[in-house]
Specification:
By secondary structure, the protein is mainly alpha-helical. 66% of the residues lie in helices and 0% in strands. The N and C termini lie far apart (56 Å).
Length: 411
């Protein structure tokens, strides 16, 4: 029971706890170390005793005490003692999450995206420390190996320490140089929630958190287009969640979802953000991406034709501004509907399969195209590759069902 409780709180709150510890003690490495120490102690204490009422608060308080003890041992506690000593007079079991873990996420996101950190590591570091994603999960999001990402993260944390980065929200004049990495972090974090249609996996809580963070970011930076565009994207995607699972627990592809089950108030809110972003900078990358989501959400009934030509046109426009394998892969779904399956497969085979080999959607798209072309053996292999890289339940059930639809060629 204790192990299950620890796993749950680690999944749901580790990023927030580490973020709060890092903000309090001004040391990222220390925050990670003492959080690990608190988790190890939880395995012992929660087995011998009952699990505390608020496990996240318990972990935070135990980790904070460990940090203070370490600072005292190194004779550097004087700077912190006045600030912190009053916080440790209460037993951890008597505290609650909100009382001891301030929401430091947005501040930590801006800190991790400091210019001292390499461009290729800013969002990755934030996803690790603030969101608690594993190194492997982050590596797959950036299409690199786990070893490469581990090196980037180590270098990034060293840069933060060596540069003496202040642990505070930077002045507004410094926000633009960090904004792209901040938005990339939010996109990937929400993407981890969105890829789980049933909202039953370890990152489901990111959905609500990113709705909140994007709203805050737009409030902080009202004159920038892309924060409003990301706020629109998150809402448009989340509005479709009620239609993403059928009665059997299978994922429902976007083109087959019933628009009448979508959350219209959330779509209306998203359109407000998108209109603001479009007025500021209509050709911005994230504004175009939000327009793709909006094209889908313009459907009112399942009988309305899917907006494939409009989606295709928007992807073509997006490619002139961001030409990367993920954009091209997503565009291929529209290519198959507008220009035909063979044209889509031909374009897919021209992509860097080595770069995308660990990316489940690449194999899922390839499997679907091969199935529709009647290439049974190749389709099954592609579905197997997709299943190997997919852990969420509804998506696995759908892929398994699709694999079962592969027909043997007639003799």
């Amino acid at each position: 029971m204790s192990g299950a409780a620890l796993e749950r709180v680690f999944r749901e709150a580790s990023g927030r706890i580490v973020g709060a510890l890092a903000a309090r003690f001004r040391n990222l490495a220390l925050a990670e170390d003492v959080f690990s120490e608190a988790c190890a102690r939880a395995l012992e204490d929660w087995s011998a005793k009952s699990v505390p009422t608020d496990p996240a608060a318990w972990l935070y308080q135990v980790a904070a005490r460990a940090a203070l003890d370490g600072l005292r041992r190194r004779r550097t506690h004087a700077r912190f003692e006045c600030q912190l000593s009053a916080d440790f007079d209460t037993d951890p079991a008597d505290l609650d999450d909100e009382a001891v873990i301030p929401d430091e996420r947005l501040r930590l996101i801006f800190i991790c995206c400091h210019p001292a950190v390499g461009v290729d590591a800013r969002a990755a570091l934030t996803l690790r420390l603030v969101c608690g994603l594993s190194t492997l999960e982050i590596a797959r999001a950036f299409l690199v190996s786990e070893a490469t990402m581990a090196q980037r993260l180590t270098r990034a944390k060293s840069k933060i320490a060596d540069a003496g980065v202040p642990f505070e929200l930077p002045a507004p004049r410094f926000w633009p140089e960090r904004l792209d990495a901040v938005l990339a972090t939010i996109e990937i974090a929400y993407g981890k929630a969105h890829e789980d249609a049933a909202a039953s996996g370890p990152h489901a809580h990111f959905a609500a958190e990113m709705l909140e963070l994007t709203s805050t970011l737009v409030h902080l930076i009202p004159d920038e287009a892309e924060p409003a565009a990301v706020a629109a994207m998150v809402r448009l995607a989340e509005a479709r969640r009620p239609a993403r699972i059928d009665s059997r627990g299978l994922m429902v592809p976007l083109s087959e979802q019933d628009p009448q089950r979508w959350q219209r108030p959330l779509i209306d809110e998203a359109i407000g953000y998108l209109n603001r972003a479009s007025a500021l900078r209509p050709d911005a990358v994230r504004v175009i991406q939000a327009k793709i989501h909006a094209a889908w959400c313009s459907r009112r009934t399942l009988q309305s034709p899917p907006p494939w030509p409009q989606v295709m046109s928007l992807y073509d426009s997006l490619l002139t501004r961001r030409d990367d394998p993920i954009v091209r892969l997503n565009r291929l779904v529209a290519v198959a509907e507008v220009h035909g399956i063979e044209a889509a497969l031909s374009e897919l085979e021209s992509l860097d399969g080595g770069l995308l080999r660990h990316f489940a959607p690449y194999h899922a798209v390839r499997a679907d195209l091969l199935r529709r072309l009647g290439r049974a053996a190749d389709a099954r292999c592609a579905y197997d590759e997709a299943l190997l890289r997919t852990s969420t339940h509804a998506e696995r059930k759908w892929l398994t069902r699709q694999r079962g639809l592969v027909l043997e060629p007639q003799s």
